[in-house]
């Protein structure tokens, strides 16, 4: 009896050693004559999907500007209230312009004065062309016969002896009259530029809508006194909305302009698809985040300031990592093992290395490749 027990024990040990290989044939609890389990009990190992990360964001207008005063004065009109819609170029805020209007009237008077000076200068030039001053007998010394004597004899004799040059005198007089015309024209252009400058300043007293949009916030009321740079109204384009979020640098590497990501808005149970519209080139040195803007679909109901959650893909994982059900792990043993069907539907045992658990499954970091057929319940356990 002792000899028979020893032989039986040795046979059992040999059987156990035979099942300890990494890829040995193994038959789970099956009906006699079968070589593989039912396909419903087989799980195809899937590659480990990138983990999804959620970052907080805020809904913002597609475009937003704050109109500021370009000149000082008293606010005489503020059109509309928050939420009112205006078309492009419609007036929003008006500031008093009495002082500028007075300056413009003075500049116009200066223009009229310079126009008269231009006409006078041109008249003097034409007179010099037709009746040269150098040949005017009234400009010569003496009177009567002495003056005629000077014109007939003295000047001719002086020119003959090398004194004086009538041609040079004539040219100089014409040039002087021409310069007078140019100077008068320059003063007129200066006055006209002053009028144009005041016209621009007058236009700056009227703040107009830069595009079709809505008043988001009023910073002044009628009767307020403002200085240049004082905010007047905040105006936004709300036909399209965006989400602005501070995204960690490690996640920004997975994004490109044009990518579609899911977004959840506060008060909305369903996710909406948003498009990456802009990725800022610089990161925040304190928070190590990058500002990213996402365009929302036009039909989304919401408004600026709403809380939003942006769901972003995580970092790319290794291709050899897969996820299998926890029930596929064979219990017992020093190392985790799984039962795998080979190409001939024979069951093989593989040693694997496990990672973290995820949603009822477990990550296999080595020992299995994507597409491997793993038994969900090895050994007939259900």
Automatic annotation (TrEMBL):
Signal peptide segment: 1-22
Identification of the protein by name: Efflux transporter periplasmic adaptor subunit
Pfam family, one: RND-MFP_C
Domain Multidrug resistance protein MdtA-like barrel-sandwich hybrid: 64-231
Organism: Thioalkalivibrio halophilus
Protein's UniProt keywords contain Transport: yes
One example GO MF annotation: efflux transmembrane transporter activity
Record-annotated Multidrug resistance protein MdtA-like C-terminal permuted SH3 domain positions: 322-374
GO cellular component: efflux pump complex
Chief location of this protein within or outside the cell: other
Record localization: Cell envelope
Membership in a protein family: Belongs to the membrane fusion protein (MFP) (TC 8.A.1) family.
Keywords, in A-Z order: Signal, Transport
Domain CusB-like beta-barrel: 243-314
Origin: domain of life: Bacteria
